[in-house]
Design goal:
The protein is of the alpha/beta class and 275 residues long. Helix content is 19%, strand content 28%. The protein has one domain: Metallo-beta-lactamase, Chain A (4-Layer Sandwich). A hairpin with a 2-residue loop joins strand 9 (159-166) and strand 10.
């Protein structure tokens, strides 16, 4: 079954359910990676809702969920994840960004479902769910031969970048992160070294970036620079700014392809296969 990737949510910051986002998608961060049928989900943005419906339809009963961090746009699909309410489903949810706080991943994920924030508590989820905290920079394996490498990203309240190595192929998930102009992030360069696919936080353009310093995000141009330095094969432009409507994204895509033929723009429901 190989190494497959599907994008269920590609937008950053807030979901955008509008006709202005039809081509690229309005749901927030959620990516599915399948390694010979073993499912790994990256983040629980609003794209997780549709992924959950797909799981129910296909009879998929378990997955590992790796969280970049727990800002709202990366967790607010979780209360609408229908398989979590099914007793025959099994999930492990992991995060590495909370090591500087007394709160655990369980505290964060359950807290957003407590009243008066949400009417249905996490106790209503009847599936088997295990929450695990680690420290960004730890490495571990998932299932049968899936190697996971992690690194700390530069983002308010921290975030974790991930690399999946499986069957001689590699996939990197690097969002949310802010670069320092002229100083390539060594943590990221090590993580994405010779990677086949790098999904990178490209919320802004280089022109927009100076007015957004401190917000915790990067640019597609920096993604290209990093991938070239690290000899990565493909950059997937991801975490689209909610103000970047379809016409803007079309122009961005054309410019990025001219800059480097290894760059593509993430679209909701887009699929990639690493043969």
């Amino acid at each position: 079954m190989g190494f497959k990737i599907k994008f269920w949510g590609v937008r950053g910051s807030i979901a955008c359910p509008s006709s202005k986002y039809v081509m690229f998608g309005g749901n927030t961060s959620c990516i599915e990676v399948s390694c010979s049928g073993q499912r790994i989900i990256f983040d629980c943005g609003t794209g997780l809702r549709n992924y959950g419906h797909w799981m129910m339809k296909k009879g998929v009963l378990r997955a590992d969920i790796l969280m970049s961090h727990s800002h709202w746009d990366h967790i607010n699909g979780f209360p609408f994840f229908s398989p979590a309410f099914q007793p025959d489903c099994d999930f492990r949810i992991m995060a590495g960004h909370l090591f500087e706080t007394p709160e655990t991943l369980y505290d964060i994920m359950s807290g957003q479902m407590n009243q008066p924030n949400f009417p249905v508590p996490i106790e209503a989820m009847r599936s088997k769910i295990v929450f695990e905290d680690f420290v960004a920079g730890d490495n571990f394996t998932l299932g049968n031969g899936i190697k996971v490498t992690t690194t700390l990203l530069r983002h308010p309240n921290n975030a974790t970048g991930y690399r999946i190595d499986y069957s001689d192929k590699s996939f990197c998930y690097v969002t949310d992160t802010e670069h320092v102009p002229g100083k390539p992030d060594e943590n990221i360069l090590q993580l994405i070294d010779h990677a086949d696919v790098v999904v990178y936080d490209c919320t802004y353009t280089d022109r927009e970036f100076p007015s957004k310093v401190g917000w915790g995000h990067s640019t597609w141009q920096e993604g290209v620079r990093l991938c070239k330095l690290a000899n990565a094969k493909r950059l997937v432009i991801f975490h689209h700014d909610p103000d970047h409507e379809d016409p803007f994204m079309e122009l961005l895509e054309a410019e990025a392809r001219l800059a480097w033929d290894g760059a593509i723009v993430a679209r909701e429901n887009m699929r990639l296969t690493l043969a």
